[in-house]
Amino acid sequence: MGTVLSISPATKKASIMDAELAAGDGQKNDKSLKRHSMFVSLSWRKLVFNSGKKSAKKVTPNPLPAPANQVAQLNSENIRKTHKTDEKKPKAPIPVPVPTVPTQNKDALVQNGKLSTVQKQPSSLSVSPRRIVIQASTGELLRCLGDFMCRRCFKLKELKSSDVILWFRNIDRTLLLQGWQDQGFITPANVVFVYLLCEDTIEDSVDTAAELQGTFQTCLYLSYSYMGNEISYPLKPFMIEANKDVFWETALRIIDRLSAKMLQLNSDPHFFTEVFQDLKNQRDTTEANLDR
Predict the structure, then answer these.
(1) Domains in the chain, start-ordered, CATH in brackets?
(2) Residues 6+ apart with CB under 8 A from 210
(3) Is 113 left (phi over 0), alpha (psi -120 to 50) or beta?
(4) How far apart (Å, rounded) are the C-alpha atoms in residues 170 and 184?
(5) In the predicted model, what is the mean pLDDT of residues 231-235?
(6) What is the spatial distance between Cα 284 and Cα 34, in angstroms, rounded to a whole number?
(7) How confident is the model at residue 97 (pLDDT cuts 50, 70, 90)?
C-alpha cells in the first residue's frame, strides 16, 4: 500500500509568492547595501577632503601692510647686512704720499763710548743718498771743548785745553766720591750739551782764569741739573768764591736765553747733530799732542 502526497494549489501559490518575496527582499537588501556602501564611500571622501583643508595653511592673497616701526626695523637690518657684506670685501689700499729725501739728513748714535752722526747727501752716481759718518769719542769731544775755550778767551795766554778738562773731571769725580751720583756724568751727549751752554755764555772779554772757571762751572751746574741722572745736585762743587755773587745771576740768564735750545737739543736730532758737528770743528789740529 502506498503513500500519496498531495499539494494544494493554494499552498503552491503561497510558496511561489514566498519565493518571489524572498527574491524581492534580496534585491532590496542588495540595493540597501549598495546605497549604504555608496554613502560610506562619499562620507569617507568628504571626511578626507575636509581634513586636508584643515591641515593646509591659509594663504592671504593680499597681505595687510606692515606697521611703520616694523618697516624701520627691517630697513635697519638690511643696512647692517649691507655693512657686514662691505666689511668682508677687501678694501682698496689707501695711497700714502712718499716722503722726498732731503738734501741733507743727519742722525746721531752713541756706540762704545763714541758719538757718531750719519749725514746723508745726494749722490749724482746713484739713486740712494751718499752717507758720511762722523764720530768722536768722549776724550776727543772734551779736547774740542777745551780748544774752544782757549780760542774764545784769547786774552788768557796761559790757559790750556787740559785746564778746562781738569775742571770738568774734578767736579764729576767729587760727586761720585761724595755719593751724589752713582755713575759719571761725562758722556759724548752731555759734553755736547755743555758746549751748547758755553758757546752762548762764555764771552771773549774774559780776562781772568777765575772768572772763566766760575762761568764754566755755572754752565756745568745747569747741565748736570738738566741732563744728569740724579734728582738734585749740591752747589758747593760748582761754586767758587770768585763767582759766588754772580752765580745765580749767570744761571738765570742762561735759563732765560737758552731754555728753547736746551729742549730742542733733546727733541730734534738734526739740531743735535749740528751742535755736535760744530763742537767737532773746534778741534785745534795744529797742536802735536792730539787725543785719538
Answers:
(1) 105-134 (no CATH), 138-280 (1.10.472.10)
(2) 240, 242, 243
(3) left
(4) 11
(5) 91
(6) 140
(7) very low
